[in-house]
C-alpha cells in the first residue's frame, strides 16, 4: 500500500472514529444552536442515512455518534404503554373540567414522569418504542359525531374549548420556552378534517367541506397550537381531504400549515398512512411506494410512521424527488433531536427523579381532575348527595371494572379505585349490597377468574415475545400481563415494547388455582394462530377467532392447580394482529335474581354504560351496535335498559352512573332514574371520585364538552362532514343535555353583566364583568361560560363559546367574574373572503352556566373597523 493510499485510509478511519474518540465536530458543540448543529450534521450524511432518519424507528449511525431513536411515544392522559404511570381521566373527561389551568398541571406531571422514565430507560443503552421524548398527543380533532369511537381521545365538540385545552397540554408537555432544552415534544393530531368513521378511514374522502366549516370548526385548534403553543409536531390524518390524502395534501400542509401559519416544526404521518396512498382498496392515489413516498415528502410530511420511506433513494433515482427536498425534512428532524438534547449528555431534565412516577402528588392530582370531570346531569328531588345511613345497592357491569376506567392509549397504574372498592371503604358491609347485574351488551356474561392465575409471585401471566414466528432465540422482551388480554396492532400499535408489528410470536404462561369445582371457559378473539395448552398438553387451537369465542372448557376441580400456556403466532402482511383473552364462568343474565338481591336497599346505584373495549380505534366488530370501534347507535345497550326498567319496579330511587367516552342516548333513563352522573373513563382514582360526589364530599362541577342527544335519530349521516344540524352550535332540535350543562348541589344566580365599552375594533380589548351569586346551601365551583352570537348572520352558528372561567364561590357569597376580551374573541367567518376576521356588525355576548340559549343572559356589543 503506497503512502498516499495509507494516508487516505488513515483519514477515513479518523473521520469514522472521531465522535467516539472525542474530536468535536460542529454538530457536537452544544454552544451552537440546534439549527446550526442540524445544518452541520446534515452535510455529513449519505442519502441512505438521511432516509433512515425519516422513519419513526430510526436506526443508529455509529460513525457519526447518532443513536437509534424511535419517535413514537404516547401520553394521551398519562404516559402510555410504558409500564407503571399515573393514569388520569380520559381526555374527554378532562375536557369536562373546563379547567385549562389544571390541565396544564396534569401534563406538567405527565412530562415529569416521561422525562424520568426516559432517563431510566436510557440506562439500558437500547431505547425502544414508547421510551423516547416525542409524544404523539394531543388529539385535537373536533368530536362532531358521538358515534366516533376515538372521540373519547378529544376535548369535545367545540373549537374554542379544544384550543384552550390543547394549548395547555402542549405547554405542560414541552415545558418552559426559556430552557436550553425542550422538556418533551408534543404533537397536534390528526390534521385536519378527521373524525371517523374508523372502519373506512384508510379510503374515506372528506369532501365538499365548506370554507366556513373548515375555518370555523376544523382548523382553529390546530392554528392555536401552532401559533400560540409552538407545538413541535403535527400528525397528518389517514383520510383524504377533497380528494388528496391528508399526508399528501399540498393545501393542508404547504399552503395553510407552512405558508399561512408559518409552521417550522415536523409533520409526521399517522401510522401506515403512506401505505394508504398506493395500497389496493385504500386511497389508491399513487401507483407505488416510491411515488407515494415522494409525494408525501414534497407535500411536507417529514417523518413516516411506517416503512414506505425506505423507497426514497429509489424515488430519487427515478427522478420523482430531488435529494434537496429530502434534506429539508431531515434537517427538521435533526433540529428537533438537538432541541431535546437527545444527542447530548448532562441535560437539565435528567435531574427529575424516578420517584415522581406514580408519586403521591400525582395520585392526588389524578383524584382532583377525576372529581372535576364528573358531570351531574340530573338530580330529581335532590336525591343526591346520599345520606350516610342509607343501605345502598350497587349493581351494573361497570361497578368493579378497573380496566374500563383506564380509557385507551393508557398507561398502567399501580392501583385503580373502582366504585365498588370505594364504597366498600366507606360503607359498612351490612349496608352495602353488590351485584354484577348484567354484561354491558350480552344476555350471557363471562364472570372472570383471571385473578386466580399467577406466576413468579405475581397475578396474571408471564408474557414472552420473539421477533420471529418460531419462538426461537433470545426473546425480544419478557413482561407481565396482569389483566385479561386486549392486544392489537391496529393503528400500528405493538403488543409490547420492542415487539414487531408483524412476524412475531408470543407465549403466555400462568398457573390457575380453581376456586370451585366447575366449568371454566376460555374465551378468545384472535387474528393470528393460537394454541392453548394445559398441564403441557395442547387442548385447543384456532386461527382468526371472532366474537369472544369459547375455545375450550376446563372441568376444574376445587383447589387443583393447572399450568396454562397460550402460544400466539402472527405473520400476515395484510391485516392486523389481535389477541383478546379471558377465562371464567359463563353466567346467563338472571334479572330477577339481581332484583331480589337488591330489593332491601334504600337506594340503587347502577354503574353502567359502555367501555373502551367497545368504542375505540379501528376495532373489530365486538357487539351489536358497534362497528370497527364506532357505534351504529348511541342508545344504552338493550340489556342494561331492561335491567334498569325492572329495577324501577321496586319503587326505589335509582342513581345511574354512566361510564363512556362519548354521549349516550339516555332519554328513557332520564325519565326512569332519579339522578344521572356522567363519569366518563375516569382513570385510576375514578371510583373514589364518583363516591365523593355521591356522598357530597365533593360538590360536582363538571360541564359537558359534548352535546348529549336524545337518541340516534337526532344525528345527521355519520359520514357527512357538514356541521349542519350538529353540536350545540348548529343544532336546531332540543337535545337531552346541552353542551356546557352540568348541575351542582348548590345554585348559582347570574346578575346583569357590564361591559367597559359597547364597541370594539381591531387591536382593542373590552372587559366583561358578570356578577354570580351562590344562593344555595353548599360551597361550590361554577364554570362561567361566555358565548358570541352575530345577529345578522343567518347561516352561521347560533352562538359559539369564546371564554370560560372556573370560579369557587362560598354559599351565600357573590363574585364578580371578569373577562378581558380581545379582538380575536370577536372574529367571525367572513363569507366575502372565506376567512375568520373581525366582521363589522352587531353582536351579542351570551353568558351563564350552560350553552342553552333560553338559560343565558345577553348583552349587546358592536364590532367596528
From TrEMBL:
PROSITE patterns assigned: PA14
Molecular function (Gene Ontology), one example: xylan 1,4-beta-xylosidase activity
Gene Ontology biological-process annotations: arabinan catabolic process; xylan catabolic process
Tree of life domain: Bacteria
Keyword line: Hydrolase, Signal
Coiled-coil residue spans: none
A Pfam family it matches: Glyco_hydro_3_C
InterPro entries xref list: BXL, Fn3-like, GH, Glyco_hydro_3_C, Glyco_hydro_3_C_sf, Glyco_hydro_3_N, Glyco_hydro_3_N_sf, Ig-like_fold
Family: Belongs to the glycosyl hydrolase 3 family.
Domain spans labelled PA14: 456-599
Name of this protein: Glycoside hydrolase family 3 protein
Keyword Nucleotide-binding belongs to the record: no
Species this protein is from: Phocaeicola coprocola
Signal peptide: 1-22
Amino acid at each position: 500500500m503506497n503512502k498516499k493510499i495509507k494516508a487516505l485510509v488513515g483519514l477515513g478511519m479518523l473521520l469514522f472514529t472521531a465522535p467516539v474518540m472525542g474530536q468535536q465536530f460542529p454538530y457536537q458543540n452544544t454552544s451552537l444552536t440546534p439549527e446550526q448543529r442540524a445544518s452541520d450534521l446534515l452535510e455529513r450524511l449519505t442519502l441512505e442515512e438521511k432516509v433512515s432518519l425519516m422513519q419513526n424507528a430510526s436506526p443508529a449511525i455509529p460513525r457519526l455518534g447518532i443513536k437509534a431513536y424511535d419517535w413514537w411515544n404516547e401520553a394521551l392522559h398519562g404516559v402510555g404503554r410504558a409500564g407503571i404511570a399515573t393514569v388520569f381521566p380520559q381526555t374527554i373527561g378532562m375536557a369536562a373540567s373546563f379547567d385549562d389551568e389544571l390541565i396544564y398541571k396534569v401534563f406538567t406531571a405527565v412530562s415529569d414522569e416521561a422525562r424520568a422514565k426516559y432517563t431510566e430507560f436510557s440506562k439500558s443503552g437500547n431505547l425502544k418504542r414508547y421510551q423516547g421524548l416525542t409524544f404523539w398527543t394531543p388529539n385535537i380533532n373536533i368530536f362532531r359525531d358521538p358515534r366516533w369511537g376515538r372521540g373519547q381521545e378529544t376535548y369535545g365538540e367545540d373549537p374554542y374549548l379544544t384550543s384552550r385545552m390543547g394549548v395547555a397540554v402542549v405547554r405542560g408537555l414541552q415545558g418552559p420556552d426559556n430552557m436550553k432544552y425542550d422538556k418533551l415534544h408534543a404533537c397536534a393530531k390528526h390534521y385536519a378534517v378527521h373524525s371517523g368513521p374508523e372502519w373506512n378511514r384508510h379510503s374515506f374522502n372528506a369532501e365538499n367541506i365548506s370554507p366556513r366549516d373548515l375555518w370555523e370548526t376544523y382548523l382553529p385548534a390546530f392554528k392555536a397550537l401552532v401559533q400560540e403553543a409552538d407545538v413541535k409536531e403535527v400528525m397528518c390524518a389517514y383520510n383524504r381531504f377533497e380528494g388528496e390524502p391528508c399526508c399528501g395534501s399540498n393545501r393542508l400542509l404547504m399552503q395553510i400549515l407552512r405558508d399561512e401559519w408559518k409552521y417550522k416544526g415536523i409533520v409526521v404521518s399517522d401510522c401506515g398512512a403512506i401505505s394508504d396512498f398506493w395500497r389496493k382498496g385504500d386511497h389508491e392515489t399513487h401507483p407505488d411506494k416510491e411515488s407515494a413516498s415522494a409525494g408525501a415528502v414534497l407535500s411536507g410530511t417529514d417523518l413516516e410512521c411506517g416503512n414506505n420511506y425506505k423507497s426514497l433513494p429509489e424515488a430519487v433515482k427515478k427522478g420523482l424527488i430531488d435529494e434537496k427536498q429530502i434534506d429539508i425534512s431531515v434537517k427538521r428532524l435533526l433540529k428537533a433531536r438537538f432541541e431535546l438534547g437527545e444527542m447530548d449528555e448532562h441535560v437539565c431534565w435528567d435531574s427529575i427523579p424516578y420517584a415522581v412516577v406514580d408519586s403521591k402528588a400525582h395520585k392526588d392530582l389524578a383524584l382532583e381532575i377525576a372529581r372535576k370531570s364528573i358531570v351531574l346531569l340530573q338530580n330529581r328531588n335532590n336525591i343526591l348527595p346520599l345520606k350516610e345511613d342509607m343501605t345502598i345497592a350497587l349493581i351494573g357491569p361497570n361497578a368493579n371494572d378497573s380496566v374500563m376506567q383506564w380509557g385507551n392509549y393508557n398507561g398502567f397504574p399501580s392501583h385503580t379505585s373502582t366504585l365498588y372498592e370505594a364504597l366498600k371503604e366507606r360503607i359498612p358491609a351490612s349496608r352495602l349490597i353488590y351485584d354484577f347485574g348484567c354484561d354491558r351488551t350480552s344476555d350471557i356474561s363471562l364472570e372472570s377468574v383471571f385473578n386466580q392465575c399467577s406466576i413468579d409471585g405475581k397475578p396474571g401471566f408471564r408474557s414472552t415475545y420473539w421477533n420471529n414466528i418460531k419462538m426461537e432465540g433470545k426473546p425480544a422482551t419478557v413482561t407481565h400481563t396482569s389483566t385479561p388480554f386486549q392486544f392489537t396492532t391496529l393503528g400500528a400499535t405493538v403488543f409490547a415494547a420492542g415487539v414487531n408489528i408483524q412476524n412475531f410470536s408470543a407465549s403466555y404462561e400462568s398457573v390457575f388455582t380453581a376456586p370451585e369445582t366447575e366449568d371454566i371457559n376460555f374465551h378468545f378473539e384472535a387474528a393470528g394462530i393460537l394454541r392453548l395448552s394445559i398441564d403441557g398438553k395442547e387442548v385447543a387451537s384456532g386461527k382468526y377467532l371472532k366474537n369472544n369465542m369459547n375455545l375450550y372448557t376446563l372441568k376444574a376441580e376445587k383447589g387443583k392447580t393447572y399450568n396454562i400456556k397460550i402460544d400466539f403466532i402472527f405473520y400476515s402482511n395484510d391485516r392486523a394482529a389481535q389477541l383478546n383473552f379471558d377465562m371464567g364462568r359463563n353466567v346467563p343474565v338472571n334479572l330477577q335474581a339481581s332484583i331480589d338481591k337488591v330489593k332491601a336497599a334504600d337506594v340503587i346505584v347502577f354503574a353502567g354504560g359502555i367501555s373502551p373495549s367497545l368504542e375505540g380505534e379501528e376495532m373489530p366488530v365486538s357487539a351489536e351496535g358497534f362497528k370497527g370501534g364506532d357505534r351504529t347507535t348511541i342508545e344504552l345497550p338493550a340489556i342494561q335498559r331492561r335491567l334498569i326498567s325492572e329495577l324501577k319496579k321496586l319503587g326505589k330511587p335509582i342513581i345511574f352512573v354512566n361510564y363512556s367516552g362519548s354521549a349516550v342516548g339516555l332519554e328513557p333513563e332520564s325519565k326512569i332514574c332519579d339522578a344521572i352522573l356522567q363519569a366518563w373513563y375516569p382513570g385510576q382514582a375514578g371510583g373514589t371520585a364518583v363516591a365523593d360526589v355521591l356522598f357530597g364530599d365533593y360538590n360536582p362541577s363538571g360541564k359537558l364538552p359534548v352535546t348529549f342527544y336524545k337518541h340516534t335519530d337526532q344525528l345527521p349521516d355519520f359520514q357527512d362532514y357538514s356541521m349542519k344540524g350538529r353540536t350545540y352550535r348548529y343544532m336546531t332540535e332540543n337535545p337531552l343535555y346541552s353542551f356546557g350543562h352540568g348541575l351542582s348541589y348548590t345554585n348559582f344566580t347570574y346578575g346583569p353583566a357590564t361591559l367597559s365599552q359597547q364597541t370594539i375594533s381591531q387591536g382593542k380589548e373590552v372587559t366583561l364583568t358578570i356578577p354570580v351569586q351562590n344562593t344555595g346551601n353548599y360551597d361550590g365551583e361554577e364554570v362561567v361560560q361566555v358565548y358570541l352570537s352575530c345577529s345578522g348572520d343567518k347561516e352561521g352558528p347560533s352562538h359559539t363559546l369564546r371564554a370560560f372561567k372556573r370560579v369557587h364561590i362560598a354559599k351565600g357569597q357573590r363574585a364578580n367574574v371578569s373577562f378581558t376580551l380581545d379582538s380575536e374573541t370577536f372574529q367571525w367567518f367572513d363569507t366575502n373572503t372565506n376567512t375568520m376576521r373581525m366582521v363589522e356588525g352587531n353582536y351579542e355576548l351570551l353568558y351563564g352556566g350552560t350553552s342553552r340559549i333560553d338559560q343565558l343572559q345577553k348583552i349587546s356589543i358592536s364590532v367596528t373597523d
